[in-house]
Each structure stands twice: as structure tokens, then as C-alpha cells.
Amino acid sequence: MPNNTERWKPAVTVAAIIEHGGRYLLVEEETPEGLQLNNPAGHLDPGESPQEGAVREALEETGRHFTPQALLGVYMARFVRPAASLEDVTYLRLAFSGVASEEVPGWVLDKGIVRTVWMSIDEVRASAARHRSPLVLHCIEDHLAGKRLPLDLIHVDPSLYKPQVKG
């Protein structure tokens, strides 16, 4: 837990939920807990919109160009690793549904990503013990349920790209 002088901040992440022919695109990645499955996802970088972050992460982790079509939802989860690091992180995830291109020829997947895998919903559900986060399945279940929000729900002010200087 943060001390009283620190302002608590969640780790903001973005995720791409990609379905094609009834199968979902996941990544298998190395973690301190071993090989785990995740949606193509990662941290939002400074100076990028959530949609841009999802596009970037999908490309880095899958070697595919992702086109967001809808905001799937905003999710929160907390992760505690009780080892020596006492890591305690709350994640705020913005998940997008959309379509992906074929693999970019010769693309090298991001460090730590072992492979990509297309899985049916039954395979995703059966592999829940290997999911990096409970949000992996939750986002896919929301996609299956037809949850879709318009992309323009997220307003990105131009100051994101050209910050206002104050003072």
C-alpha cells in the first residue's frame, strides 16, 4: 500500500480482443509465474491515446495490424506478488474489440512473447488457470455477450500530443 505522502495511481493498460471465425487471438508469454496466456495487451505509453496503445501493443505482441472497432469496456483488477518485491498493482484496463490483419511477414514478436495462439471460447475457458489475469476471460465473455461501446466515448484532447505549458 502507498504511504500517506504518495498518490495512488493504477497502472493503465490497453487490450485488443480479436476474434475471427469463432476463435480468439491470445499470446503466450513468459512471466515470473511461468508461461501464461493473455490478450494482446500492455501499458499505455505517454503521449498515445488508448486506441493507439491497443494498436501498438497488438502489433508488438502478435505481428498483426489491429483496427479497433469498439470499446469493449473498462476493467479493474488487482495483482499481488508476495515475494521479496511485495508487488501490489491495480490495473485499469481499456479493452477494444476489432479486427486484425494477417501476420506481418518477418515480424519479431515482443520480448517475452513466446507465440500467438487462436483459441475457441471453450479452449479459453478450459485454460483459465493459465491466464495472466482474470480479465483475459472476462473481456472475451463480454465480447461474446455483444458488449460494444462507441470509440468516441474516449475523448483525446490535442494537449495529449502537444502539452499546454502552464506557469
From TrEMBL:
SUPFAM superfamilies: Nudix (SSF55811). It comes from the Bacteria. It holds the Pfam family NUDIX. GO terms for molecular function: hydrolase activity. The lineage of its organism: Bacteria, Pseudomonadati, Pseudomonadota, Betaproteobacteria, Burkholderiales. Its EC number is 3.6.1.-. The keyword Magnesium applies. InterPro entries: NUDIX_hydrolase-like_dom_sf, NUDIX_hydrolase_CS, NUDIX_hydrolase_dom, NudJ. Belongs to the Nudix hydrolase family. NudJ subfamily. Monomer. Gene3D superfamilies: Nucleoside Triphosphate Pyrophosphohydrolase. It comes from Roseateles koreensis. Its cofactor is Mg(2+). Keywords: Hydrolase, Magnesium. Residues 7-141 form the Nudix hydrolase domain. This is Phosphatase NudJ.
